[in-house]
User: What shape does this take?
Amino acid sequence: MYDILTIGGATRDVFLVSSRYEQQSGNLLLPWGEKVIAEEIFMEIGGGACNSAVGFSRLGFKTAFWGIVGADQNGEEVARRLRSEKVSLEFLTINRESKTSYSVVLADKNGGHSICMYRGENDDLLGTPFNLNSLTRAKLLYLTDIASSTEGLSYKISNIARKQKAKLVFVPGQNQLDLGFDRLIPVISKADILILNIYEACRLAKIDYSRDQKTIRALLAVFCAAGAKISVITEDEDGVVAFDGKKYTYNPASLVKKIVDTTGAGDAFSVGLTAGILKGKTLKESLDFGCQNSASVISFWGAQKGLLSKI
Assistant: This one.
């Protein structure tokens, strides 16, 4: 029996760091047909479910990862990282018809970045044979972004969690958010914890982006009314707000001496919050640890190096 099974993506990431990238109105400007020189390069492993699996394992949870890689060198690197972090590869699926997901992260030296990503078919978790009954061997199912082509899988996973009385943490990604709030209610209604950032929360509710605290609290209440036991909205440097159906809890972002790279900040927070709750901490204490984990991660390049090993 596993404590946690994370479900979603794994990627091979290359970071091209340059002080020469230009921005305008929040957009990255690159001259077409010309070269932009990077001053540094880093190779790392990423992907929401992969990052989370590493994070949970470091904190002492018996963890497995369910995702897909290609039969290539990048897939071998993903497997090597998971194995070195004591994450079970029992459910790691190899897709011999596709390449491992790959990201090129164009990053400046102030922590900002844009990502160009190849996902291929590696989010299609139902595209390769898998016995869904295996999910019953985990006490907690940690569901992250999966492809729209397997949107029905989110429903199946949440139903299995409810039937087997396993906990469900739902950290929806782009494809799931595209379904809209009404179509995600069957999953949200079974979630012990629902975690979104402010952009995702507004997108899911189909409202204009807003950081107004009344709006945030209203969104949290709506998500809990839909069935989530705890709903959480992160606000980057402005901290995080959670609602358990009775009380709103706020926690400020942890201080960071120098932001190196914000990749994986959300994954680190979600791992820390979930781990705190599983270890019997209060919601406030768990939110604080999530913020600490996030602050540690963004102090390093990549989404995994800074993940904490103790609460």
Summary: The chain has one domain: 2-297.
